[in-house]
Design goal:
mainly alpha, 53% helix
Length: 83
């Protein structure tokens, strides 16, 4: 039985999902009430929205890049090509 070699394996997809979840958490941390023309909301300059959330998103993007670059392990089975 010939096994097709894919660029990603199960580990890569799992790491990608974790990275996407981290990015989503970062974007959720950025949400909150906004200012209007009649009311100023000082929460837009909070530590969570200005420093923490972008850092979490950046870490998520770095993690996704790692997931893409992660080399899958070689299987112990050797595939023989039939000539």
């Amino acid at each position: 039985m010939k096994r097709t070699n894919f660029a990603f394996d199960k580990t890569n997809y799992l790491l990608l999902l974790v990275g996407i979840a981290i990015i989503t958490i970062g974007f959720i941390l950025m949400t909150g009430p906004g200012s209007t023309e009649t009311h100023f909301e000082p929460d837009i300059f909070s530590f969570r929205r200005i420093k923490l959330a972008p850092a979490v998103c950046f870490f998520g993007f770095v993690f996704v890049i790692y997931a893409i670059m992660h080399k899958p392990r070689k299987t112990t089975e050797t595939t023989k090509t039939q000539e």
